[in-house]
C-alpha cells in the first residue's frame, strides 16, 4: 500500500504509528466488490488525511519564550557514595542517580543538553536496556518524536562533559552545531582518551560543525536566556547550562558539578574529578553566581528533585 510504504516509526509520533499500521493492514486484502472498493478508497483518504494532520503536528511552532522538556534517559544503580567522598549514612535521599536529557526550545532554535547513558542503537528492539549500572526504559529519539522533533530539528548540541552517562546518543546529533569548551574537546579526542570517555559514542562529532568556546561562558541565542557556563574541574572543560524562564525564573542545570545534594552541603568532591581543586574553585564561583542571579541550582542526577519537576510532554517555561 503506497501510503503505508512511505511511513516509518520515525515519521509518526508515539502510538499514532501503531494505530495507523493497524488501519493500513486492515485495508489490505483480496479484491473487493465495487461498492466495497469505494469504501476502501474512502478509508484510504481518511488515513491520508490523518497522516497529513499528524505530520503537521510534528513541527511545533516556535514558543514565545524559552521552554525546557525533561526527557527520561535512565537511572544509575548500585552507587557507591565513597566515590563522592561521602558515607552511606550521610546520604539523606535516594542513593541511585537519575539521568535526564534536556531539550531546550527557544524562539530562535533548539538545544539538546546531555544525551543519555545507553545509545538508542544499543537498546533492545523492545523493553528496557541495561549496561553495567545503567538502566534505561525509554529510547531518546522516540521521546523527541513524541514532541514533534527529530535530530534534524536540533539546532545545537551541548553536553555538560564527556562521561558515558551524558554522551550516549551524541552521534545522532552530528548534523547539529556542537557547542564545546576548547579544553573539553582537546581531552575528548586526545590519545589515549581520558578515563570514562567512550569515544565511539561521540566520534562523529569530530567532524561536525562546532562552536569551540575558549574556556568561558557562551550565550547560545544571544539574548541572555540560554547561557552555557564554563565550570571546569569534574572534567577539563565541564560546563553547565543557565536558563532564564519567563515564569519559572532563572535556573542553573549543574551538569556534574554536584551529584548528591550532600556534596554541596558537606563540601565533598568526587575522587575521580580531573582536578578537585578546580572543582572547588568552580563551586565558589557558581554559588556567587546563584546569589547574584537569584537562580535555582538543579543537580542533574538528583532523583528526588526531578520527581518534583514537570516531565515531557509537559514543559517548564
What does this structure look like?
The chain is α/β, with parallel strands linked by helices and about 325 residues long. The chain has two domains: about 1-55; about 65-305, Metallo-beta-lactamase, Chain A, CATH 3.60.15.10. About 30% of the residues lie in helices and about 20% in strands. The chain has ten helices and 13 strands. The protein has helices at about 1-5, 15-25, 35-55, 140-145, 165, 180-190, 200, 260-265, 275-295, 305, and strands at about 65-75, 95-105, 110-115, 130, 135, 155-160, 175-180, 210-215, 220, 225-230, 240-245, 250-255, 295-300. The strands form two sheets. Strands 4-5-1-2-3-6-7-8 form an eight-stranded mixed β-sheet. The protein has a five-stranded mixed β-sheet with strand order 9-10-11-12-13, with no helix packed on it. Helix 5 (about 165) links the parallel strand 6 (about 155-160) and strand 7. The two termini are about 45 Å apart.
CATH class of the largest domain: Alpha Beta
CATH architecture of the largest domain: 4-Layer Sandwich
Query: How large is the share of residues in beta strands?
Result: 15-25%
Number of helical elements:
10
Radius of gyration: 22 Å
Uncertain regions spanning at least 5 consecutive residues: 1-34, 51-57
Total strands: the figure is 13
Characterize the main sheet: 8 strands, mixed
The H/E string reads HHHEEEEEHEHEHHEEEEEHHEH
Q: Kindly identify the CATH topology of the largest domain.
A: Metallo-beta-lactamase, Chain A
How far is it from the N-terminal to the C-terminal residue, by CA?
A: 43 Å
By CATH, the superfamily of the largest domain comes out as Ribonuclease Z/Hydroxyacylglutathione hydrolase-like
Global geometry: globular
Structural class: alpha/beta
Measured as a percent range, the helix fraction is: 25-40%
Mean pLDDT: 88
Amino acid at each position: 500500500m503506497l501510503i503505508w510504504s512511505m511511513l516509518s516509526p520515525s515519521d509518526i509520533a508515539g502510538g499514532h504509528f501503531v494505530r495507523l499500521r493497524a488501519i493500513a493492514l486492515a485495508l489490505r486484502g483480496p479484491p473487493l466488490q465495487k461498492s466495497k472498493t469505494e469504501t476502501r478508497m474512502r478509508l484510504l483518504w481518511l488515513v491520508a488525511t490523518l497522516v497529513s494532520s499528524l505530520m503537521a503536528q510534528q513541527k511545533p511552532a516556535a514558543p514565545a519564550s524559552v521552554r525546557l522538556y525533561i526527557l527520561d534517559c535512565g537511572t544509575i544503580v548500585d552507587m557507591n557514595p565513597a566515590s563522592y567522598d561521602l558515607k552511606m549514612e550521610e546520604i539523606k535521599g535516594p542513593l541511585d542517580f537519575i539521568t535526564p536529557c534536556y531539550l531546550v526550545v527557544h524562539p530562535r532554535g533548539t538545544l539538546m543538553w546531555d544525551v543519555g547513558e545507553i545509545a538508542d542503537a544499543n537498546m533492545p528492539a523492545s523493553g528496557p536496556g541495561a549496561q553495567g549500572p545503567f538502566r534505561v526504559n525509554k529510547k531518546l529519539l522516540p521521546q523527541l518524536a513524541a514532541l514533534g522533533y527529530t535530530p534534524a530539528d536540533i539546532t545545537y548540541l551541548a553536553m555538560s562533559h564527556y562521561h558515558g552517562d551524558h554522551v550516549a546518543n551524541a552521534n545522532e546529533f552530528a548534523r547539529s552545531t556542537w557547542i564545546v569548551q576548547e579544553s573539553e574537546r582537546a581531552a575528548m579526542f586526545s590519545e589515549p582518551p581520558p578515563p570514562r570517555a567512550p569515544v565511539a559514542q561521540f566520534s562523529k562529532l569530530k567532524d561536525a560543525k562546532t562552536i569551540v568556546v575558549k574556556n568561558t561562558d557562551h550565550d547560545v541565542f544571544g539574548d541572555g536566556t540560554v547561557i552555557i557556563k564554563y565550570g571546569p574541574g569534574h572534567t577539563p572543560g565541564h560546563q553547565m547550562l543557565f536558563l532564564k524562564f519567563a515564569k519559572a525564573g532563572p535556573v542553573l542545570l549543574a551538569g556534574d558539578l554536584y551529584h548528591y545534594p550532600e556534596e554541596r552541603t558537606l563540601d565533598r568532591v568526587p575522587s575521580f574529578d580531573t582536578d578537585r581543586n578546580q572543582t572547588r574553585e568552580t563551586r565558589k564561583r557558581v554559588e556567587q553566581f546563584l546569589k547574584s542571579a537569584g537562580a535555582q541550582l538543579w543537580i542533574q542526577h538528583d532523583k528526588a528533585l526531578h520527581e518534583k519537576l514537570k516531565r515531557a510532554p509537559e514543559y517548564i517555561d
